[in-house]
Amino acid sequence: MRTLQNFIGGTYRDAEDGPTAPLINPSTGEAFAEAPVSGAADVDRALRVAAEAFTSWRRTTPSERSLALFRIADAIAARGEELVAAECENTGKPFQLTMDEELPPALDQIRFFAGAARHLQGLAAAEYMDGHTSFIRREPIGVCGAVTPWNYPFMMAVWKFGPALAAGNTMVLKPSDTTPVSSLLLAEIMSEHLPPGVFNVVCGDRDTGRALVVHDIPAMVSVTGSVRAGMEVAAAAAPSLKRVHLELGGKAPVIVFDDADPAVAATGIAGAGYFNAGQDCTAATRVLAGPRVHDEFLAALVEQAEGSVVGGTDVADADFGPLNNRTQLERVSGFIERVPAHAAVMTGGTAVGDRGYCYAPTVVAGLRQDDELVQSEVFGPVITVQKFSDEAEALRWANGVEYGLASSVWTRDHGRAMRMARDLDFGCVWINTHIPLVAEMPHGGFKRSGYGKDLSTYGFEDYTRVKHVMSNIEG
Fold this sequence. Notes:
The protein has 475 residues and is α/β, with parallel strands linked by helices. 38% of the residues lie in helices and 23% in strands. The protein has 16 helices and 25 strands. It has a seven-stranded mixed beta sheet, with helices on both faces. A six-stranded mixed beta sheet has the order 10-9-8-11-12-24, sandwiched between helices. Strand 18, helix 13 (372-375) and strand 19 (382-387) form a beta-alpha-beta unit. The longest helix is centred in the first third of the chain and has 18 residues, at 40-57. The termini are far apart.
């Protein structure tokens, strides 16, 4: 069994002290490596290295940072199979599916931010006061701390370092304690094209992340995780008034109106609900179906679920893989065990196989708006279906959760689609589709789904600060 190290200052380094923790392949349930549970001393060392690197990295030109990111994208592409293999060993995801569905968009996102580095926007320099010329400087913030989740370790690292490095910041990233492998390999690949200390990875647990957030050096912390984690980070960052960027949970409503094609909707929604075993904050997990389409849609969705292939890294035709860890398997199972008597599990609801953490694609019908499965994020391959009576009720139920990340509307009525897009209290509204993301458009939510945007120029600007410079041109 191999032992991992932190990556600090352009090289692998042992943790100064503290224990190690086993890493489990979710496909098998077996340990394959161990990673350091880094302490405050390791976090401090990484942050000081990043702060030193910032003094010169911030002075690089946009074209230099752009070129570095383009080269990083090319290097990742060249070692794509190796990186995806590391990701799959650590997450249990099907290898070919990850190669096809996760690597290409991640490369595109890096290249987007490489281009964005040279296109910062601001007000035109002008005399807004007689005799004085004003202009805007957009500057890097400083050292950024980042905490990434276990559902998309590689891609979420890209979402953090892409805009941060493009803007001239340096970074210390703490991956999830269960999935550090691809982040460390990523840091190794990137080190060939970055000065030492610009991008660092420190392994550890919740306490390691807390040490990163409360430290004096980071000027910003960016976290993708649960609502609970986001609240803790916001509170921990408050005494030092750090900038905080939070992308948290979701409970996406999927509104299927009576004029939608039930078979088409079921196919799209099953794909968006079960992808990555439902471990996606935008997953299509909460369907609200119109009174006339409900039964036919439900039957079609059950058919989709029962036709899905569940398997681990070596299952070539798998539609999705296992849950990330035993705790998550137990959590998802608990939701199904507590399904109320007035609801019914139409299919699934059981673990799959005699090892690992696979869970059958599940459909639950007959739930009420205040039921746990409607209100709480499951983060598993579970889709619920409720029957609404009219558009007003659909909107009220859709907005009637604490989350506000993503949503979708399935209808042929353009006016209805636009009304719903206007009134849905979510950061993204898809129409007749669900889950596609593009680098040019922002991703981020409202309410307890957090604040700040990933991707797009909006996400890029989150990693900059604005300075007004005014010069007296008469004196």
